[in-house]
Amino acid sequence: MSQVCLKSFSKPELEAWIRSLNEKPYRAHQIWSWMYTHCATSFDEMTNLSKTFRTKVAEIATLTSIRLLEKKNSPVSGTIKFLWECEDRSRIESVFIPEGKRRTVCISTQVGCPLACRFCATGRMGFFRNLQTHEIVDQVIQIQKEIGMALTNVVVMGMGEPFLNYEAVLKALDILNTPEGPGIGHRKITLSTVGIIPGIKRYTFEKRPYKLAVSLNATTDETRTRLMPINKKYPLVKVLEAIKEYVKQTKKRPTFEYVLIRGINDTPADANRLLKLLKNIPCKVNLIPYNSIQGPFETPEPERVQAFWDILRSLPFPVMIRHSRGGEIQAACGQLAVAYMNRKQTSENE
Ligand code: SF4
To answer: Atom 4 in ligand 1: which residue has the minimum CA distance?
Structure first.
């Protein structure tokens, strides 16, 4: 009989599961607390449960389904990159990013990604499968255990496109947001999409409370399609229309992410077009200079970034320049998994 991972359950589902075992309802509360307050990874740690009960549940359930394979610390930024192995031996990664009082984790939602954005290491891996809810939740809980502190923020910006794995991702976020633990507030959770329009519409319709970020990266369909082939299916203007509807329905401000790539999308003409496209959308804009360690393009010089920002400054909302962190530990999404796969392939070929 295959074992169920308890991190795939919402709190009411865990309660129902405990009832189905003819156990007292408070057992669900005890297990939930061990999983999400104490980050227990084995039933033996649950010392306030009887040995008989622990043995019974350990036969039919597990607490974790990903195993730490590799960890890389950046002495410069404090960023830590985690590489995990799932039960089917596929590999995923997450990044811990400390920043003042914030302790953020960036998590993956798919093994690889089918969207093949040209600036992204994950895009070059290809697509293997969607992650399950418990594999998404467990990245956060295991990192919490590793660093020995509660995490304050979660960003869904790692490997994969979250709206292509909608149910599993949103269920994982709901679990992470559960007040009895892990208790990560909805304003501290951000989901980032490349602009999957049916996903944006559903997210809007369901009035999901988490923040939404859109990876824009270009101001014309030609450039955007070159960087992000999915733009052919969901073109720029249509994505922005869906976002305007999201703003109208939810009264929330999305964030637009714009990776500045030298000579591709960082000219004053691009900045002026971006200004025009966004001027009627209440939002935030993050400009992220491309890190050339990550792949085939070039990093813009600081003056070009500054000039781009100067043009956008007239927008009536925040426009920030953010630098991707942890380049020296391959913290761009998918890089550690790609490096691991390459190393493994090399050693297998030797
Ligand atoms: S940037 Fe995101 S959507 Fe694009 S290939 Fe990488 S993981 Fe996939």
So the answer is: 117
